[in-house]
Amino acid sequence: MNPLRQAPLSGIRVLDLSRVLAGPWCTQNLADLGAEVIKIERPGSGDDTRGWGPPYLADANGEPTTEAAYFLSTNRNKKSVVVDLNDPLGAAAVRALAGHCDVLVENFKVGGLKQYGLDYATLQAEYPSLIYCSITGFGQTGPYAHRPGYDFMIQGMGGLMSITGERDDLPGGGPQKAGVAVSDLFTGMYAALAIVAALRERDRSGQGQHIDLALLDSHVAMLANQNLNYMTSGKAPQRAGNAHQNVVPYQVFAASDGHLIVAVGNDSQFRAYCAALGHVEWADDPRFATNSQRLIHRQKLIPLLEARMQQQPRDHWLSTLEAVGVPCGPINTLDQVFADPQVQARQIWREMPHSLGGSTPTVANPMRFSHTPVEYRSAPPLLGEHTEEVLTRLLDWPEDKLAPLLRSPAAPTS
Description:
By secondary structure, this protein is of the alpha/beta class. The chain folds into two domains: 13-222 and 348-406, 3-Layer(aba) Sandwich (Rossmann fold); 250-338, formyl-coa transferase, domain 3, CATH 3.30.1540.10. The chain is 37% helix and 15% strand. It contains 17 helices and 13 strands. The protein has a six-stranded parallel sheet with strand order 5-2-1-6-7-8, with helices on both faces. The protein has a three-stranded antiparallel sheet with strand order 9-10-11, with helices on one face. A two-stranded antiparallel sheet has the order 3-4. β3 (56-58) and β4 (64-68) form a beta hairpin. α1 (22-32) crosses α6 and α6 (182-205) packs across α7 (215-222). The chain is elongated, with a radius of gyration of 25 Å.
């Protein structure tokens, strides 16, 4: 391999004091990009998500281990170091590790790390080139700064649940959360991007900085066009079920034997869609000819489309619409997702060797590089698996000072 074409973040070391999802999602992405990520965990229990099961990884004999699937989803390519921050020696060790790292990521409550000398102000004074990323529910400032923040409540507070779910006037209407913790995941992605940007800026200035990431901020930002729908009109968007607020038709339709999604993105696609339905005259109707008119006359158009779609099975419509370039697709369960030939061709399901289970499944990182591909170097670590290796390699401490840290208890691994 060309020595100049190493992994994008090769040579970067990250001290990860985060747990659960937003922070670990950020640091897993950094690890996938080649950074060495040192995950600091509590003795005995480690990251909360180690216990968030079942399901748990099965070992080579098919017996469940103590490795929860939740933890496995967001901690590959990392090293686990068990340190008790409440022990002054443990806190000193983590402070010393920070001096060997480029980035520190934490998601403690605002001010929670000050008692250990691990707050930004303390570390910045000693290590001015350190990039320090704090992830909290509400950020470092504002009236809610000291409140705990959880994804579910952020989905409600941040507006997503006001625009997600069936319309209030229909059966099943009412607020609905997303099926995954989108606030955490978006915050983790924003954090990873911010860290990469700060590293690039440090290349010029030589200085680190503090990154303040909040779940609420990230959540509001990700609402994108819905924010601007409100900000330009003064009207708050409402729940629209599986329809789109700005594009028609762009929704779920019932066929004779199931459901499919039709996503008409422009007027030429609408004409092709009408022709495929056998009603090209709908595309010539002034009420439906343009998207702006279709929005106005949605209640007239959609029943016509629904009645026609129900006359044929789902797969008929999928093949017919795909043949004329109308975007459409099935609504898959996860077993169907991973059986899909496109998903299989992209090798999204991968296996990694695991010291307990023989192997563990993992989902491929979607970032595809032509010359520096993501490497799946190691499975999510056992609790404390790398304590001795990391501390003895990075801390120039005498053996008698290191010995108490190396005796820190870890959770059972099987």
